[in-house]
Amino acid sequence: MRSGLAAEPPRGNALPIAEPAGAFPPVLLPSHYSRRIAEISARLVKVANEDLDAEILWALREALQPLGVDRGGLLEIDENSQLVRLTHAWYAEGISRVSEEINLAEWFPWSYRHMVVEEKIKRIENIDDFPPEAEIDRQSHRLLGIRSDLGIPLFIGRRVHHLLSVNTTKIDRDWPEPLITHLRLLGEVFVSALQRRDDARALHHARARLDLSAASAGAGLWDLDLESGVYWLTDKTREMFGFGPDLTLTREDFIKVVHPDDRMRIKEATAEAVSTREETSVEYRVVLPDGQVRWMQTRGRVQEGAVRDKIMLMGVTLDITERKRTEQQLQEQLQEIDHLRKRLEQENAYLRDEVAARQEQQGVLHVGGRMQTVMAQVEQVAGTGSTVLIQGETGTGKEVFAQTIHRLSPRGKRVMVKVNCAALPAALVESELFGREKGAFTGALSRQAGRFESADGSTLFLDEIAEMPLETQAKLLRVLQEGEFERLGSSKTIKVDVRVIAASNRDLALEVEQGRFRRDLFYRINIFPIHLPPLRERAEEIPQLVWQFVNEFGERMGKKIHRIASRDMEQLKAYAWPGNIRELRNVIEHALIVSKGETLELNRLIAEDPAPAAVTLEEMELRHIQDALVISHGKVKGAGGAAERLGIHPSTLYSRMLKLGIHPARS
Hints:
By secondary structure, the chain is an alpha+beta fold.
């Protein structure tokens, strides 16, 4: 047994990594990596015990190779000493191997105390991250060429039984929490699988000892006289089942302690053993006198007795409660991994939407004039948890302000879940919000959690809430008032803690008066209303917004714009902006694309709106919409339609056309 940590030369069978030395692969999407971990774990649950070591080595390679690390392994801690045995390891190509037996306390005293004694994760991004008292550890890492190191304690019961170690030797790297979560779950599956194999080996050895009657006293030996129905039991068997030492036990006495759901299984196994004369095995539960439920495995075979025609059923019983508990833990861990995978897939979609929304955030917040009042309202309500209603025309930045309220709230560390009520068919809005059970309606082929469940502990943003069907509004009101609901097709009540931020480009008070929106729901969401003024009402802010967008797109495109013609800026200020900030942003992006020098070229706006500044805003808006309809050949919505060209929602465009007296058929 070696007590040092001497490096060994490569043995020539190291597995290749996907990227060249010194480079990291692209960051994997959380949903992708979580799905891969789930697939690896599922294989480990099904693998035969004799193939487990090879499967763990394969799993280490599959889990670690995409991360760009250099070494990774599973270490078993000797509970009677401070030695750590490297049981399974993966090495990137060209990386030297380490000793299989490590005196962790001698080479890495701080790490031993940190992980094994204090049961904490060791996360070193650079060897200079070690505290002063870890000088020996720092020197050992430097000697072995380790630059970044991650160590995760893995438990069996309440004791640290294994360590999962991952490190790099060429570059420094960080160890983000999501990655640690994935690797810890994988390590727990490793340890559970190894424990399951150990239990299986122990069971195999116990069965082998059945041939030695004297040595088998530790197992529960018994025989049953099938004619009289009376059992003979060893003391160990009586202890296992909670029978007294002097009780004459009959078949009826035994059946009484078997769990009611397993009694038929016992009767069928006994009948099979008698009819086939073959060895029969059965697993079942017993209920002890103190109410404790234990799992037993019994193996038995019919033997001819010493007396003519007397048939004896003889066998051995083992308590397999711990094995069953381990199997249950494995199943629960797999379910947790699957739940995490689905949740990360969903959150990944939300994060992609959030990144897209934040591209519009530049210039919407932190501007002067009336928007400072809006920001003051946002800061007032953010930390309260109250329901907020944001009203404003399309393109004024309602989602951006909803994100800001969420980010400034105590729930800001979670992802804000979003639902666009106008983008969903009316028949699917309720299913999307509250979830469904399999078979709840035609086409519901699987169970699906709703957005309220996904947003539990976070914020749910209901955009275009005026488009929500009246029957769904009633169910939403209940969630807001009581914090509970049922999935479609289920009677089980689900409790959630969700903050709701609603938004609409319609006047909800008017919608209530016209019977298209529930009055009680309006009062419930209108606790703290925020109105976002359209861009045409704050023309004095347009120059600042223009320059913010110019700087944003200029940096992205590698262009430097230092001048905007006064005439062009005045035209921007005079324009009606039916698409509000979103339209302004699109116009500036287009101008940056076509601009060749240091002066911004606004040919698109000039070409689309040649009207002089003296015309009214309503006339400019009328002309702009008419021009868009002409270009789109009268098409209002859909790809290439006027609404898309103007950067506004089709329903908003229809309402503007009705107000201005424009009819699609005539345009």
